[in-house]
Each structure stands twice: as C-alpha cells, then as structure tokens.
Amino acid sequence: MIEARIEEALTWIEPGPVTLIATRHGGRNNVMTISWTMAIDFDGHIVFTSGDWNYSFRAIRANRECVVCIPPASMAETVVDIGMVSGEDTDKFGKFGLTALPAATVSAPLVKECLACLECEVEDIVEPYGFVVMKVKRVWVNDEIEDRRILHAVGDGTFYADGERFDFRKRMEAKLPPGI
Amino acid sequence: MIEARIEEALTWIEPGPVTLIATRHGGRNNVMTISWTMAIDFDGHIVFTSGDWNYSFRAIRANRECVVCIPPASMAETVVDIGMVSGEDTDKFGKFGLTALPAATVSAPLVKECLACLECEVEDIVEPYGFVVMKVKRVWVNDEIEDRRILHAVGDGTFYADGERFDFRKRMEAKLPPGI
To answer: How many angstroms separate the CA atoms of B90 and B92, rounded?
Structure first.
C-alpha cells in the first residue's frame, strides 16, 4: 500500500462505508466488520460505535489503537463472513486469507486487500454509548485493486455498492475543506 | 407519506446516506444537509454530529427534536444547494420548493420529497463533540418517488448513488436484529 495525504481520511469515512477494523492484542491480529462509523470534523477525527459484545473492542480498550480499512465491493462476501465469527476463537486473517501489513504508528496491521487503511489512535471512549473517538494518524491506499466501489450496509442483510457518481466540486467550492 | 415500522429506522441510517434534517423553531421551518450520521444500536437510536456553526443546531438545542430525512439521488443538486445557504437568512423550504408535512410527535416537519423521514427526539448532546443522540419515534416513507437510490457524500464535493445490490440475508440470518 502507498501512503496518501492525511486530508484524504475524511473521504473514506464520510460516504458511510462498511469497514474492517483491525486490531492487535496479546500477540494476535484480529479484524471485525463495522458499519457504524462517522466523520466528526475536518481535522482527521472519526468515530465508530461498539461495545463489550465485540471481542475486538476489548483490544481497543486495552491498547487504544486500531486500523480502519475500507474493503472494495468485490470483497462483500468476505466482509459479511468476517462479521459472523469472533476473534475469540477464530484467526480471521488466516481463515479469510487476509494479508496483514505493518502499520507505521500502531501495532495493529493494515489489511492489504482493502482500498484504504487508516491508522487510528483512540482519543476517547464515550460511555454509555460505546463511541470510540479516534484521530487518524496515517492514510494508506491500495491502488492496484480493480474494483474501486465501496460497500454500504442497509442493516437488513442487504448491501449496495457505489453506483453513479456526481461531481459538485464547483457548486460546493466555498464549503470544501482545505486540501480536499 | 405513509407510516412504516419503527424497525425500519436503522435501515435508512446504516447505509451512510446524505440526510436532510428538518427543524422548527420560532415559528419557522428549516432544513440542513448532514452527512455525519451513524446508527448506534438496534433500538432506534441514531446520532449525528453538528455544532454551533449550524443555525439548525441552535433549534435542536432549544427544543430537542428534529426530523431526519433521506433524499433520493435525483435530489442531489438540491441537497448540495441546501447545504450552501443558512436558515438564518433563507427560507429553505420556500427557496428549494420543499413540501413540509406535519409530523406526529414533533413540531419539525416531514419533507415530502424524501424517500423516508424519521421523527426524532433528542435524548442527549455529547460535548465537546456535538454528538446529537436521538431516539427515532416514527418512520414515514414516500413510496411514490421513482428513484429509490440514496446518495452518499465523499466529502470532496463528489457523491455516489446506490448501485449494485447484494442480498446476504440468508448468510447473515443468525445476526439480523428481530423484525428486520
């Protein structure tokens, strides 16, 4: 994967993708499927919602870091299957043939099969909601993946891939954050 | 618009749509464009991020309610334009030809031109993040709109409409919330 500008972080979360969140704890890599994410400012902060029912959440609570990855739509079945098993009893990187690459600022790995990976430092966990507030430290993209569409979960077991694109950059010029 | 089951609320927010959030304050309707939303549980709670820079946020702070609407992709230009002006000096319902319909549980209006509108009661505002935590009270859908695609903001002035659909209901059966 190649490093991208930090300003790009927002553009991977704002569309509302299904994400794969990678963690490392007790010497083992793990990954979970999370749709409940949100951009929260123009300064690289993002949030996701989780709780103790997620095995990965314990790792995040313990070492305050993770990598948020954006899988292409072509990975849809794997993304669903990752969400159906727990890292407590499954080596998900092995089971699903994922490639863990070293990150620069965190011990959790990048997932090479994803379009982008955001190295994140956890700044706050807001209870009772389980809001994990994170600052993106580095952005990595894999530009060798042919399918550039991201995946959106409907929440009822169905998903959509990105379709028609609209370009309103001119129309929105006055409100676009710098560097985007 | 016709009323839908409350369990449907999740399925309108989880995909990560651009939303129009309607408010009513001081006897005037207003609406803002918000992409920073997130589902947070299976019990009808959702959240969006805002702050005092949004005129609508002051209305939400004051009367603790709003209506979160999901526009179809065919409304893309209007959605962008709504985000470029402020309700402080603009009657957005008038300017953009939106139809305000009465809601059942809040004073803020439904927006008839949207695919769905969620009546929301604000339960908490989490500072310093501006997380507006809401409980959905009623779900309304407009099934007469031909374009059923929702719109996703990339954050750089470009947007995507829903494209290819994947159905993994069988694959995810064990994890789907009841009633979905």
So the answer is: 6
ipTM of the prediction? 0.95
Tens of pLDDT, residues B36-67: 999 999 999 999 999 888 889 999 999 999 99
One-letter amino acid of A59: A
Identify all chain A residues contacting B39, using CB atoms and an 8 Å cutoff.
Answer: 35-36, 49, 155
Inter-CA distances, B164 with A24, A163, B96, Å? 33, 7, 30
Give the CA angle between residues A52, A57, A61 to the nearest 5°. 105
User: For the segment A21-31, what is each residue's pLDDT rounded down to a tens digit?
Assistant: 999 999 999 99
Instruction: Determine whether the interchain pair A157/B180 forms a contact, defined as Cβ–Cβ distance below 8 Å.
Output: yes
Angle at B90 between CA B89 and CA B91, to 5 degrees: 135
Task: Please state the separation of Cα A27 from the chain's center in Å.
Answer: 21
**Which residue from A35, A38, A166 is facing B37, i.e. has the nearest CB?**
A38
Dmax (CA) of chain A: 50
Chains A, B: CB pairs < 8 Å: 198
Whole-angstrom CA distances from A135 to A40, A41, A53, A73, B20 are: 10, 10, 23, 25, 27
Q: How far apart are CA A17 and CA A87, in angstroms?
A: 22
Would you call A53 exposed, middle or buried from its count of C-beta atoms within 10 A (0-12, 13-18, 19+)? exposed
Q: In chain B, whose CA is at the least distance from the CA of A177?
A: B156
The answer to whether the beta carbons of residues A131 and A49 sit under 8 Å apart is yes
DSSP SS3 for A55: helix
In single-letter form, the type of residue at position A156 comes to D
Q: Distance (Å) from the C-alpha of residue B26 to the closest C-alpha of chain A? A: 27
CB distance A112 to A101 below 8 Å: yes
